[in-house]
Structure formats: structure tokens, C-alpha cells
Specification:
The protein contains 3 helices and 2 strands. By secondary structure, it is mainly alpha-helical. It has a single domain, classed as Rhodopsin 7-helix transmembrane proteins (Rhopdopsin 7-helix transmembrane proteins), CATH 1.20.1070. Strands 1-2 form a two-stranded antiparallel ribbon. The longest helix is centred in the C-terminal third of the chain and has 56 residues, at 69-124. It is found in: Membrane.
């Protein structure tokens, strides 16, 4: 979403995505994944077996203050849901507005040309 926003809404002439930009995106993705997965390993919340007891997931259900589950769930909700969703809504909303403005400008240009042709035709005839 951010890449599309930069390319469409903020064209900077000769700006091109390079390998460094890709590496930064990969590093950010790993950072976000680790910031989700690592806290329970150090005691902030915990992992519990889920479903058929063949996989583990964060403990969202226990209200025991010993595990700090409520703060972990609030952290996960705000940092790993609200912020990304807000970013996506902002970038795609801006993208839609930019594309609509460009389409309206192009349509206005075509209508102006059509009007000029009509006036020219009327003058000649």
C-alpha cells in the first residue's frame, strides 16, 4: 500500500525502488513479525496449545494479572491491527482521490477539446 501511495500520489520524478528499498521492507516485515511473536517468550502473556493441541497461539483468554494478557492484547490490537489498517485506509483513500482527480482532469480536457471543435465548426460553417 505504501509503495503504491508513493508511486501514484507522490511522484518524485526519477525516484525508483531499488534493492535497498526492498531490503528495508523485508527488515520491517521481520521486525513486525518478531514484535508479535517474541513478547510471550519473555513473559508478556504466554503461548497455549490451540485446537487439536498441535499448534500454539497467544493466550487471549486468561484474565490472570500474572500473565499481563490484557496489556498484550491491547498492544497487539493497537500496533498490529489499528495502525496497519489506518495506514491502508489512508494510502488507498489518497490513491483513489488522486486517480479520480486525474480522471476528472482528463475528462475536462476532452470536453474542452470537443467544445473547441464545435466552435471551430460553427465558425467555418
Amino acid at each position: 500500500a505504501i509503495e503504491r501511495y508513493i508511486v501514484v500520489c507522490k511522484p518524485m520524478g526519477s525516484f525508483k525502488f531499488s534493492a535497498n528499498h526492498a531490503m528495508a521492507g523485508i527488515a520491517f516485515t521481520w521486525f513486525m513479525a518478531c514484535s508479535c511473536a517474541v513478547p510471550p517468550l519473555f513473559g508478556w502473556s504466554r503461548y497455549l496449545p490451540e485446537g487439536m493441541q498441535t499448534s500454539c497461539g497467544p493466550d487471549y483468554y486468561t484474565l490472570n494479572p500474572e500473565y499481563n494478557n490484557e496489556s498484550y492484547v491491547m498492544y497487539m490490537f493497537s500496533c498490529h491491527f489499528c495502525i496497519p489498517v489506518t495506514t491502508i485506509f489512508f494510502t488507498y483513500g489518497s490513491l483513489v482521490c488522486t486517480v479520480k482527480a486525474a480522471a476528472a482532469q482528463q475528462q475536462e480536457s476532452e470536453s474542452t477539446q470537443k467544445a473547441e471543435r464545435e466552435v471551430t465548426r460553427m465558425v467555418i460553417l
